[in-house]
Design goal:
This protein is an alpha/beta fold. It is built from 13 helices and five strands. The mean pLDDT is 90.
Amino acid sequence: MRAELLQQPVLHADETPVAMLDPGARKTHRAYLWTYCSTKLQSTRLVVFDFAEGRAGRHAAQFLGHPGEDGWRGTLVCDDYSGYKALFADGVTEAGCLAHARRKFHELWANHKSVVGEQALALFGELYKVEREVADMDAERRRSIRQEKARPIAKALHEWLVVQRQKVPPGSATAKAIDYSLGRWQALTRYIDDDALPADNNWAENQIRPVAIGRANLLFAGSLRAGKRAAAVMSLIHSARMNGHDPYAYLRDVLERLPTQPARRIDELLPHRWAAAQASS
């Protein structure tokens, strides 16, 4: 599944903390479950979870392969976490998350009834209105509509942000929200000219949300190996669900067929190909 995923030109990435047991210390410490998945705009639907001891950028580099060493060189949709920066320096293209930028202003409005926050939300809302319009369009039409309608909105938003930034003191919550968008503007608006790119990272966040919601029930991973095994099982279950399969039916069929399935045809059992393989059997 990882090999198939790394053939995709665009990937989402996200990470969430999980507890891992440290038997020697008789307590848990923070580990991370990293999520890598294809986009909604691609025909291949896969998500692969990678359990790691921490949040250091080297974990992302190990999964994707170092770009400078024949690793993956596509476009990565992610938030502004510093762990991904080394990948961009080595040749991976950065695509920002419009939802993260919008969220900064939503917090301003929700917590402080900020007028700047409210006005920014209206402009972000116009960008998302375009995305709803192009959601079911083919790639060429999606790019054309984005360029025609989203580009002038983005230009107006950028000009407005520059003006507002001059009116607020450095270090204020409003300044930080504006600086987040201005500092990543090229990455945030890259999707407008690239029909293969989504506007945000919400698709990856949706894949990892069940983990965050179930964290209280999961308690902790017993070891690094146990965490990696759990990540592998979760990758199969969530990918099966992404492809419209009942996870139980998928896993049962795969486990029954594995003993006699030729190794050269193992790809027939991957979640995104399973239905075709099932139909031909």
